[in-house]
TrEMBL record:
PANTHER family: CHITOPORIN. It comes from Pseudomonas typographi. The keyword Transport applies. This is OprD family porin. Residues 1-21 form the signal peptide. InterPro entries: OM_porin_bac, Porin_dom_sf. Keywords: Signal, Transport. Belongs to the outer membrane porin (Opr) (TC 1.B.25) family. Pfam families: OprD. The keyword Cell wall biogenesis/degradation does not apply.
């Protein structure tokens, strides 16, 4: 599940746990089971454009191309508060979840905006601050929870974006059931969205490539089954109204070899096809990835292969623009998902957990992903073709991305759980129709606090 970043781990765990409540028979009460959590996030984002690329966003869009800046740079502070009530007692329990968030600009201007940390106005200059407020009512019967309101979804076919200052959210219904041991079933229906840099909650549900018409709604159903501590399966189906129907399959297996060594295998597949009024044009895409890893002591080495089988790219649901959620394909890098039509890609990855070496909380990751074979010359989709047409001579269509990630989490004391993370990304392409060449650095400092 590449693309899930540690900077959003606390929020991701929190949002997932909302549907993982204990049985209604164990409810202690609306107030008695309440929780209030805060997350402070300080985020610095720099992306330098390379090889002639420029920043076309913000105030730059009002300037001649020759006068546009060649980089994006912003620094901001975010504070997120999450309240989760318990359930009233009885056969049917009722409760409330709510969140309040604020983002404050520390540095950045109209010429360097475009990182999606802060919104910008009609003049192209970023706002000094913005806020998000939302909530959902919930009802529990046994181990099944039904919710309606603004939520932070976290499923493979509709995942919140946790990779900026504040998370994206969406308004609708969710149903989460844990009636069967080791089996979690979920369903959802959402009709509006709020992006990472937006204060309103009535935005369109769009797609990552930004070229398809917005959808009136997205529906999904699926679940996960943990066979044992080694083997698990995930299966979901979704419907982006009058755009596509998309299915997702995942299988993960861990094979211990000794007390300190193990093999791991992860397979992901998305199958996407247009349906109904096909407002997004013809779509016929099957995309899959396979990742194999070898863990030994503090180290893990992984290799991955990913294939986009279709003349249209692999695309996924987003929040009123480009801010989609995590990409559940192994070769999705920190910036580039390697999801172009007919693209194939390879990955080599190294992870280091310093805990066995006497430095708990310190981690390191480096990976290199290379893709080639992009070709959309046979596509009949007028929307995706707007991005451009690849040279059918596939040997000339190549791209690569390198990621380096260093993180540290304080393990004890008054600053326990304070985390620091530095992420560096470099991307180069011979045919950069969508992703310009760049060098990027992100610095994220987080401090979670549990009030009660």
């Amino acid at each position: 599940m590449s693309g899930l970043q540690a900077c959003g781990l606390l929020v991701g765990i929190f949002t997932s746990s909302l549907g993982m409540a204990a049985s209604q028979s164990d409810s202690a009460g609306f107030i008695e089971d309440s929780h209030l959590d805060l997350l402070n996030r300080n985020f610095y984002f720099y992306r330098g454009m390379r090889n002639g690329s420029v920043n076309n966003l913000g105030a730059n869009s009002h300037k001649p191309v020759s006068e546009r800046n060649g980089y994006r740079s912003e620094w901001a502070q975010g504070l997120m508060s999450y309240y989760r009530s318990g359930f009233t007692q009885g056969t049917v329990g009722f409760g409330l979840d709510a969140f309040a968030m604020v983002g404050v600009k520390l540095d950045g201007g109209g010429g360097t905006t475009g990182t999606s940390l802060m919104p910008w106005g009609a003049d192209g200059h970023p706002e000094q601050e913005f806020s998000k407020l939302g909530g959902a009512v919930k009802m529990q019967i046994s181990k099944t929870v039904l919710k309606y309101g603004e939520q932070i979804p976290n499923v493979p076919v509709f995942s919140s974006n946790q990779f900026r200052l504040l998370p994206s959210s969406a308004t609708g219904f969710t149903l989460v059931s844990n009636e069967v041991d080791k089996l979690t079933l979920q369903a959802g229906h959402f009709t509006a969205a709020s992006s990472t840099d937006s204060s309103h909650n009535d935005g369109d549900i769009t797609t990552d490539y930004t070229v398809l018409p917005p959808a009136r709604a997205i529906d999904y159903v699926g679940g996960s089954y943990q066979v044992n501590d080694r083997l698990s399966f995930i299966l979901y189906g979704s419907q982006l109204k009058d755009i596509w129907r998309q299915s997702y399959v995942n299988a993960t297996y861990v094979m211990p070899l000794t007390a300190t060594t193990a093999l791991s295998f992860a397979f992901n597949l998305f199958d996407t096809h247009d349906y109904g009024k096909a407002k997004g044009g013809e779509i016929d895409n099957t995309s899959w990835s396979f990742m194999a890893g070898y863990s030994f002591g503090a180290h893990k080495v992984s290799v991955g292969y990913q294939k986009i089988d279709g003349d249209e790219p692999f695309d996924w649901a987003a929040y009123e623009g480009t801010q989609s959620g995590a990409v559940y394909l192994s070769n999705a890098g920190a910036v580039v998902p390697f999801s172009e039509p007919n693209e194939q890609s390879w990955q080599l990855r190294y992870d280091l957990d310093m805990a066995p070496l006497g430095i708990p909380g310190l981690t390191f990751m480096a990976r290199y992903i290379r893709g080639d074979g992009m070709d959309n010359s046979n596509s009949n989709n007028p929307y995706y073709r707007r991005i451009g047409t690849y040279d059918p001579d596939a040997k000339n269509n190549k791209e690569w991305e390198r990621n380096i990630d260093v993180g540290y989490v304080v393990q004890s004391g008054k600053a326990k759980n304070l985390s620091f993370r530095v992420r560096q990304s470099t991307h180069r392409a011979s045919s950069g129709l969508r992703w310009p060449d760049h060098d990027e650095v992100r610095v994220i400092v987080e401090y979670p606090i549990s009030i009660f």
